[in-house]
Inverse folding.
């Protein structure tokens, strides 16, 4: 049975960050704690958020989010939340900060370690309505975590897992493209390719959800047309608006499920947290598109042609789409392959085992075997 669910209220416009107090009031958050990272804080964005709140002096700020959020950071922030008597969270930053905030929202209000709530540990039913409310303010255009029902976090044992539940959905998203104008070129490119990966993978997923398919294709069209401009002309407001929209749309759509791009990048990101998630997705995409081209749903619904049309490509084969993605990665200054990122073939067995256990593995249009994953890794080197 299909679950089609779009429930996060989104304030979307240049200057929308000014509405943060309004959204806190609507939700009933009186004593918020901000979750962010040091880089975002140094840009002055947190000062802008605080200036929009009634009593900035009463707001706690946790700014220790790592680039790949982990269980240790969740524990520390959850302790701060409980000890401070806060009643809600304002997540400000990229997907890492928003995902960490979601982990804190669960762990600060439920008993048990973070792994208790991982989907692969049966945690879906353990996350309840006691979860702290979150207002999400993205400062990148990539993960779309501000409208997503999950958080991706690294456990103490090194596994990168999903905490997924309707209760994890933010109570509000404030999407202000102005907050992305000074995002560095590499992060603009890497997070933008993450949004493209979300749109592509969710569209290829075999689950029945026509609204998600339409949202994904429109998000892909916007991202593909504007990612290079946003990267090379950072103050192009039209490009920034379209990239933020594409990011949001990708996450709205991936309730259908993702696939092998994400099962591989989650696994490898857990093994080496220094690797950027969006960059990994950009590198993996061509191999997974090639693998998915023979899927019955991809063939029967002519999905490659529809993808090519959204990307403005004259040819619609998987090879042409993969070649276009590789060419775009080069234009954006992203790595050409995994080897350039320090990945070696002796890491393959561990990457593959993690991918097979990842929650995104089961929603790919074709079920991948160990041998299939090995081929994808070789193609991506």
């Amino acid at each position: 049975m299909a679950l089609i669910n779009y429930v996060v209220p989104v304030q979307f416009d240049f200057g929308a960050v000014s509405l943060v107090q309004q959204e806190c009031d609507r939700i009933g958050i009186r004593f918020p704690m901000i979750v962010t990272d040091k880089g975002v804080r140094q840009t002055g964005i947190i000062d802008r958020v605080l200036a929009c709140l009634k009593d900035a002096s009463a707001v706690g700020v946790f700014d220790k989010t790592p680039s790949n959020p982990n269980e240790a950071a969740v524990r520390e922030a959850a302790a701060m939340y409980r000890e401070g008597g806060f009643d809600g969270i304002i997540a400000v930053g990229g997907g890492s900060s928003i995902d960490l905030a979601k982990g804190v929202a669960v762990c600060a209000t439920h008993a048990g370690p973070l792994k208790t709530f991982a989907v692969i540990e049966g945690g879906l039913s353990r996350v309840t309505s006691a979860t702290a409310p979150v207002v999400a303010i993205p400062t990148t255009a990539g993960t779309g975590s501000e409208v997503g029902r999950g958080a991706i976090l690294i456990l103490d044992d090194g596994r990168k897992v999903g905490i997924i539940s309707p209760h994890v959905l933010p109570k509000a998203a404030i999407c202000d493209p102005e907050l992305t104008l000074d995002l560095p070129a590499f992060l603009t490119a890497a997070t933008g390719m993450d949004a493209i990966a979300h749109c592509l993978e969710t569209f290829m997923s075999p689950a029945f959800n026509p609204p998600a398919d339409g949202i994904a294709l429109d998000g892909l069209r916007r991202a593909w047309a504007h990612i290079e401009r946003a990267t090379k002309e950072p103050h192009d407001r039209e490009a920034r608006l379209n990239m933020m929209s594409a990011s949001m749309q990708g996450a709205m759509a991936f309730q259908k499920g993702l696939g092998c791009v994400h099962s591989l990048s989650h696994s490898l990101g857990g093994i080496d947290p220094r690797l950027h998630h969006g960059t990994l997705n950009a590198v993996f995409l061509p191999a997974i598109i090639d693998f998915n081209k023979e899927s019955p749903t991809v063939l029967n619904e002519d999905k490659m042609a529809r993808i090519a049309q959204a990307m403005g490509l004259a040819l619609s084969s998987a090879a042409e789409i993969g070649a276009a993605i590789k060419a775009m990665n080069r234009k954006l200054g992203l790595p050409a392959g995994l080897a350039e990122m320090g990945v070696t073939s002796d890491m393959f067995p561990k990457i593959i085992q993690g991918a097979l256990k990842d929650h995104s593995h089961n929603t790919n249009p074709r079920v991948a075997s160990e041998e299939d994953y090995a081929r994808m890794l070789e193609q991506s080197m």
